[in-house]
Amino acid sequence: MATSGLWGRLRHTGPRTAKLIGATALSTCVGTFLLMGMLGVRINASPSLPLGLYVETSDQSGLVEFCPAEPFGSFAAARGYRSKGNCPDGASPLMKPVIARAGDLVETSSRGIAVNGVLVRNTAPKRLDTFGRAMTPWPFGTYRVAPGKVWVASTYNARSFDSRYFGPVAVSSVRAHLRPLLIEP
Prior knowledge:
Helices cover 23% and strands 28% of the residues. The chain has four helices and eleven strands.
């Protein structure tokens, strides 16, 4: 059976041309990724938010990108909750919705995180992660969010690694504020 079209031509391409095609394809992918980064576009493939593209914004009311503080950052990286990336611990930053800001009253319990008396959906801490490993929630109690801090949590995924496990996040660790650009429905 004879092959035709592009696939047939590629199968009969010499090694030099094949290397050139491969290098061009790789350069195009890397270039596109770098350009998107320069334009402030982030790709989210984690289950904590809808799959899609997010873009930097000056609006500080939505999502944040940050590197988690130690020891939580290394813990998340070692467990595979974060892939390789450009945070100081060598892993990728997290993208999470801000659920509480300075002055808000946060209550953590086995039911989840309540902000100013309203329980935030999907925030009940899990005793085990998806691989059956023990999880330790942030100590249950009532906290007034201090200036320079925020609490983050995914209402999209009940298994998200967020403030229910590592508590408040320093605003100084926020690298970008984001909004959805193109996400799955």
